[in-house]
Structure formats: C-alpha cells, structure tokens
Inverse folding.
C-alpha cells in the first residue's frame, strides 16, 4: 500500500452488514458510469480506487 494512504475504519471487524461495496457499485458504476477497483495485501489492508467520468459541456 502507498505511504500516503489513510486508514478508514467504520466498524469493528465482523460487525458490518457487507452492503457497503454493493451500494458503492450501484452509485459509482451503474448510475455514473465510473469504476471501482481494489488492491489488497494479506495482513496489510486494502486500497479502493473510485473513478468517475468527467463530462465537459460546450456552451455553443
């Protein structure tokens, strides 16, 4: 993992419902056409990458 990563923990291990990524996928991928990626290292943690498309509108 990169040294600039920050740990974000919202619940204790084993206490969540497991719906967070499903909801994130629905919003980012299905509704906005973006992507979700994850890089994980056993015993180290996971990094999630969220990419959203940028739309540029012309004034003409």
């Amino acid at each position: 993992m990169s040294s600039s990563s920050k740990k974000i923990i919202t619940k204790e291990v084993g206490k969540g419902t497991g719906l967070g990524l499903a909801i994130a996928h629905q919003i980012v991928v299905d509704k906005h056409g973006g992507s979700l990626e994850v890089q994980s290292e056993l015993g180290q943690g996971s990094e999630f990458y969220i990419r959203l498309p940028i739309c540029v509108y012309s004034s003409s």
About this structure: The chain has one helix and two strands.
